[in-house]
C-alpha cells in the first residue's frame, strides 16, 4: 500500500501542476493547491499509518483516498475532472511499474517521485515532510530482498490488471497502442542477480566454463548486467522513470536526470537529520505478519487520517473555493467544459463492478443464511465502504 499511494500521489501532483499551468491559474493559488495536497498526503499521522502492514485495497477503495486528498485544498474538481485525473494517475504509475526490468527498481522510481514532487512545492516545512517520507521509504524497503520486490511488483500488477485507458501523451510518444496496451522496452539493468540474455555456456565435467557463445536477442538490446549491492547505491539507467512526464524537457527521458538515486536519497537524509521527528517516529519494520484489522477498518482509518487542510476548512462555505475543470477540451464529452451540470442533461448509466460483486455476494450469503450474522458482526464501522457502494 505505501508504494502504491506514494507513487500515485506523485503522479497526481504532476498532472495537477501541468493542468494548473495550462489553464493559467495564478501562481499563488496553484502553489497553494499543490502545497496543501502534498502537506496532507505526507503528514506524520497518515504516513505512519500507511507504512504499517495492510492488505492491498481495491481500486474503488484507493480512489476514495485520492478523492479526499485532491479536495484537501482550496481546489474543487467536478466529477469528470476527478475521473480523468485518477485515470492518468493509474496509467502513469502502471507504465512505471511495467517498465522496471528489475522489480527492485520500484524503489528507485519511488525515490524519484518523492524528489521531484518536492521540487514542485516552495514551502520548506512541506519539503521536510517529504524528506521524512524518503527516510521512511528507505527504512522499510531499502533492505528488502529481490524476491520480496518481485512479490510486491506482482501485487501492483494485479492492482492495475485490465487498466487500459488511452493517454494522449503515451499515444503521441509511441508507448501505447490504440487498444490501450503499453509498449514496454526493457533498456537498462537486468533483474538483480541475472545475466544479459543471449549467452550460451558449455561446462566441462568439473563444472567449469569450457566455451561461451553469444547471440543477439532483439528484446535484450540495451540491457546491462545489474551490479551487486543495494539498489539505492546504483546509478540509474532508466533515468526517466519516476520523473514528470508532462514537462516538455522530460519527453526524451534525459533532461536533467543524470543524478543517481543515491545522491537524491543522501540529500534528503542530510536535510532530515536536523529534524527531531526523523522517519516520522516509526522504527525499521519488525516483520509484522499478522493482520488483526479488516481491510474496511484500515480504509476508514486512512480516510479519516487524510482529513482536510486548514485551507480546505476555510472554503467549506464554497465562497473561496477554486473551482477547476482540469480537462475542458475533452473530446469524449459533447459540448464544452464537461461540467457536472452538463452531465446531468445527458442520461448516463454508471456500472460499478464493486457494487455488482457485493450484490452477488450478499445473495450467496442469504442462501447460506449467513446474512444476519454478518450484519451483527460488522456493526456500524463500514460507513465509508457503504458510501462507496451507494454511488454505484
TrEMBL record:
InterPro entries: OSCP1. Residues 271-281 have a biased composition (Low complexity). It holds the Pfam family Oscp1. Residues 370-381 have a biased composition (Basic and acidic residues). GO terms for cellular component: cytoplasm; plasma membrane. Residues 267-286, 324-353, 370-392 are annotated as: Disordered. This is Organic solute transport protein 1. It comes from Phytophthora infestans.
Amino acid at each position: 500500500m505505501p508504494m502504491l499511494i506514494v507513487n500515485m500521489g506523485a503522479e497526481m501532483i504532476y498532472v495537477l501542476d501541468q493542468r494548473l499551468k495550462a489553464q493559467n491559474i495564478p501562481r499563488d493559488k496553484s502553489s497553494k493547491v499543490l502545497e496543501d495536497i502534498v502537506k496532507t498526503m505526507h503528514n506524520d499521522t497518515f504516513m505512519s499509518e500507511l507504512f504499517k502492514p495492510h492488505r492491498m485495497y481495491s481500486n474503488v477503495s484507493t480512489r476514495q483516498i485520492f478523492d479526499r486528498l485532491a479536495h484537501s485544498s482550496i481546489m474543487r474538481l467536478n466529477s469528470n475532472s476527478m475521473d480523468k485525473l485518477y485515470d492518468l494517475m493509474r496509467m502513469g504509475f502502471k507504465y512505471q511499474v511495467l517498465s522496471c526490468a528489475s522489480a527492485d527498481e520500484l524503489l528507485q522510481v519511488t525515490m524519484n517521485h518523492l524528489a521531484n514532487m518536492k521540487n514542485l512545492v516552495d514551502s520548506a516545512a512541506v519539503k521536510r515532510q517529504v524528506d521524512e517520507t524518503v527516510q521512511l521509504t528507505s527504512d522499510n524497503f531499502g533492505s528488502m530482498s529481490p524476491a520480496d520486490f518481485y512479490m510486491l511488483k506482482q501485487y501492483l500488477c494485479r492492482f492495475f490488471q485490465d487498466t487500459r485507458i488511452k493517454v494522449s501523451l503515451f499515444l503521441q510518444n509511441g508507448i501505447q497502442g490504440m487498444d490501450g496496451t503499453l509498449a514496454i522496452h526493457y533498456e537498462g539493468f537486468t533483474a538483480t542477480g541475472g545475466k544479459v540474455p543471449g549467452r550460451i555456456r558449455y561446462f566441462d565435467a568439473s563444472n567449469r566454463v569450457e566455451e561461451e557463445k553469444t547471440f543477439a536477442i532483439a528484446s535484450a538490446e540495451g540491457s546491462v548486467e545489474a551490479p551487486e549491492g543495494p539498489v539505492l547505491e546504483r546509478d540509474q539507467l532508466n533515468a526517466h522513470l519516476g520523473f514528470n512526464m508532462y514537462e516538455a524537457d522530460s519527453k526524451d527521458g534525459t533532461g536533467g536526470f543524470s543524478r543517481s538515486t543515491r545522491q537524491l536519497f543522501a540529500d534528503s537524509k542530510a536535510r532530515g537529520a536536523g529534524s527531531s521527528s526523523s522517519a516520522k517516529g516509526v522504527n525499521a519494520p519488525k516483520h509484522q505478519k499478522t493482520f488483526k484489522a479488516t481491510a474496511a477498518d484500515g480504509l476508514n482509518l486512512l480516510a479519516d487520517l487524510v482529513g482536510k487542510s486548514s485551507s480546505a476548512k476555510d472554503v467549506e462555505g464554497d465562497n473561496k473555493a477554486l473551482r477547476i475543470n482540469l480537462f475542458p477540451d475533452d473530446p469524449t464529452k459533447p459540448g464544452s467544459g464537461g461540467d457536472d451540470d452538463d452531465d446531468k442533461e445527458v442520461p448516463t448509466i454508471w456500472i460499478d463492478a464493486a457494487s455488482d460483486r457485493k450484490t452477488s455476494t450478499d445473495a450467496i450469503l442469504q442462501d447460506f443464511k449467513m446474512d444476519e450474522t454478518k450484519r451483527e458482526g460488522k456493526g456500524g464501522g463500514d460507513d465509508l465502504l457503504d458510501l462507496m457502494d451507494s454511488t454505484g
